[in-house]
Amino acid sequence: MSQENPTLRWGIIGTGLISSWFSRDLSLARDNAQAIHHIQAIGSSSIEKGTKFVESHLPDQKQHPTVYGSYEEVYRDPNVDIIYLGVPHAFHKQACLEAISHGKHVLCEKAFTLNAREAREVFDAAKQKGVFVMEAMWTRFFPLVKTLKKLVHKDKVIGDVVRVFCDFAMNQNFDSLGPDSRLKNPALGAGSLLDIGIYSLTWGLLTLDSEIGDQAQKPKVLATQTLKDGVDVGTSILLAYPNGKQGILTSNVAVKSPAQFCRIEGTSGHVVVQGFVASVPASFTIFTEQQPEGKQYEFERPGRGFYWEADSVALDIAAGKTESDIMPWAETVRVLEILDEIRAQGGAKFPQDQEN
Ligand SMILES: NC(=O)C1=CN([C@@H]2O[C@H](COP(=O)(O)OP(=O)(O)OC[C@H]3O[C@@H](n4cnc5c(N)ncnc54)[C@H](OP(=O)(O)O)[C@@H]3O)[C@@H](O)[C@H]2O)C=CC1
Ligand SMILES: O=C1OC[C@@H](O)[C@H](O)[C@H]1O
Predict the structure, then answer these.
(1) One GO MF term, please (predicted)?
(2) ipTM
């Protein structure tokens, strides 16, 4: 690691599954790290839970993080540079606004907010405070994705992209979940779409178009959802682009997708992306007339791969930026506008949609 690598001091909010994955990855020793990450503080609903989190997931930290029994104390901690939000979607807007009001930078889990209106409110606040804010759509930061985008959009290895299929399905044992689960309670943003369908949509958007945010083309959106007690357990999306390209993108909480979760079809070949699920691509294979047997590209991924987005955030903040070029504010808003349209057509509603 070079001396010039920037250092970020993180305050982790919420001690559930994703915070454990993210914190462990930040603590991983890596050869090609581009930043130094310190977990400075943990914010939890109780000191006991926060302490247990540190013991379970960060036992080897040289300097143990400060554990707070509230989120607000983390926002107030002068030794914290950036807040990582690992709480259910429904709390993202309020937590972002509170962190920003204390002048903290924010990396907020996907889905960034419940709808596009909430996201605009957060970005307006970030703009006023001049702080960095980003949706933690970590998959976009995988080296695999960067390489794939170059091969598809710049080198045109499969000609012009015509169709993209992507599926993220996993059995979440929906029927056995309690009513307070974030995967079951509409007030917590439950449903396959914001939890996992957002990845299928992401693969469609980044492979059907080389541009993102305001520069991207605006596809027509057609969608249907299967609802159980008002929660979508399955969503199917068709993105229809003005020039005829189509994305067929799906999510489901009752079955598991096969490992080949994405196929990108072009005028002179196709690419298959493989991985355990669509959030964690591991390799892809390019099939062309010249290589009908396929050429596979594999990528190393020590730990889980959350450090790629974290390094990118650290470099952006060190450069004085308030948003990422890879996941800019306009792209987060665009994704949420599409998710809003899908829900309007499919029928999944959140109580917060009614708020002004
Ligand atoms: N990038 C990725 O791969 C993944 C991203 N996620 C995203 O992370 C977020 C959190 O998901 P996940 O970690 O699975 O959720 P968990 O239920 O495992 O943890 C959420 C944590 O948020 C805090 N919390 C505050 N209020 C509530 C509430 N009313 N109900 C439940 N938890 C509450 C709790 O921490 P405490 O008690 O300590 O305050 C809880 O442990 C979601 O937005 C999800 O989309 C999730 C999994 C993977
Ligand atoms: O982002 C996610 O990816 C992995 C899933 O297990 C999880 O439910 C989801 O939030």
Answers:
(1) nucleotide binding
(2) 0.99
Of the candidates 92, 72, 77, which has an alpha carbon nearest to the alpha carbon of residue 41?
A: 77
Per-residue CA distances from 271 to 148, 151, 208, 288, 296 (Å)? 9, 10, 13, 9, 9
Separation of alpha carbons 198 and 336, rounded Å: 9
DSSP 280: S
Which candidate, 237, 283, 289, 263, places its Cα nearest to that of 162? 263
Residue 263 C-alpha to ligand 1 middle, in angstroms?
Answer: 30
pLDDT in the model for residue 61 = 78
Contact 189, 182 (CB under 8 A): yes
Q: What is the pLDDT of residue 62?
A: 76
Q: What is the pLDDT of residue 3?
A: 58
Ligand 1 atom at shortest distance from the alpha carbon of 304: 3
Pick from 234, 190, 199: which is nearest to 350 by CA?
Answer: 190
Q: How far is the CA of 194 from the centre of ligand 2 (A)?
A: 10
- pLDDT < 70 stretches in the chain: 1-3, 356
